[in-house]
Amino acid sequence: MTVTSKMNSVSRQSVLSRLGPGGLLYAANKILAVAVPGKEEERWRSKDEGALFKRWRRTPSTVEAPASTPAPATPTPQPSELLKFLAINALELSAPASDALLKSRSSEWFQLAGHPGSLAPAGPGTVWKRRAAGDHPAHNPERDAYEALAACPHMRSAIPRYYRELEYGGERFIELQDLLHGFRDPHVMDVKMGTRTFLEDEVSNARARTDLYEKMVRLDPKAPTEAEHAARAVTKLRYMQFREQRSSSAEQGFRIEAVKVPGEPPLTDLQKIREPHQIANTVARFLGNNEKARRAIIARLREIRDLFENSDFFKTHEIVGSSIFIIYDDERVGAWLIDFAKTRSVPEGLQVDHRAEWQQGNHEEGFLYGLDRLIDTIERAKLPTPGDEAATEPDVSR
After folding, report:
1. Are the C-beta atoms of residues 191 and 374 closer than 8 Å to each other?
2. Which domains occur in the chain, in start order?
3. What EC number(s) are associated with this protein in UniProt (predicted)?
4. Whole-angstrom Cα distance, residue 356 to residue 299?
5. Do residues 293 and 287 make contact, with C-beta atoms less than 8 angstroms apart?
6. pLDDT tens track for 160-170
7. How many CB atoms lie within 10 A of CB 138?
8. What is the mean pLDDT of residues 5-25?
9. Using CA atoms, how far apart are residues 277 and 396, in angstroms rounded to an integer?
10. pTM reported for the whole predicted model
11. Residues paired with residue 336 on neighbouring β-strands, in sequence order
């Protein structure tokens, strides 16, 4: 992770103290910090959350701007007073973690999926996400999408809580709910949704490119047609569709980006999983033998689907490259729709149903087509019996 601005040593200590000795931290680009649960985590767990798989009810935001600092009574405050002031304010608002801080916790961090360098821990239960590279300074599609969905009665419960946009060190961030906050050693699965995960304007140029042909050949020497081999070039559209067909995106409308189960390293090299039995085996590995988790996840995904279908926002927006992030532990289950950097409004007068086949200009991306099949896959996945762990191994050709 790279954050260009550096923190002073006091700020680093503030962030360390807020991260606490335990828990898992989710930074919306899928970065997790794993540590041993401790008292700090207990402080954030209410006593009435003991019911198995009780859905996390989010409370209204308590994030406020820090109060202005009164003028010191003496010319130079004592170091202990300064430390106390900074520590108190860090609970509400602070800089994201620096490279030095993250390196000091290198044994506790790993990359699950997504683009490294775009997220940083911010406070208890929040993260900062950097503006997507290439966005126009005056245009932030992800911020706009989160603000619109946070105001939508149908969708605000299906996304991470959105707090605000802010600037730090010359860069723009949005502050979001830390989805893993409060979960203990959970199972985690990130699922990229849609049959199309690229924007239409990304493939509008019909010029054949040699570099994309070379990429295609490296992945599969037999993929280019005879004409493409002769020209040693392919268009951007051809290459992007080829890439979608190598995963389950084109056929199933979703692909599993990464899976993390307790006590094991994350599975992130899942791009070649495309056959139904391979996908089912990966889902079974994620679920273990937990039938209660399966039922709770299915119920939550159906809820998200119903909310999505009733949202006016999604009738007029294409949702490209978004994911569903699924979490469960011994006490609860969560699932949220995340990642809106490629969400765009469709031309005026056009509506999308998110299930129709994509053709250039209709802006369909297959989100609901994929969600239907994801729910069906989770319903049908054969869970292993205790001791039958081999059945949960994903069938992946590496």
Report:
1. yes
2. 9-41+85-177 (no CATH), 187-202+248-392 (3.30.470.160)
3. 2.7.-.-
4. 24
5. yes
6. 999 998 888 88
7. 5
8. 35
9. 11
10. 0.69
11. 325
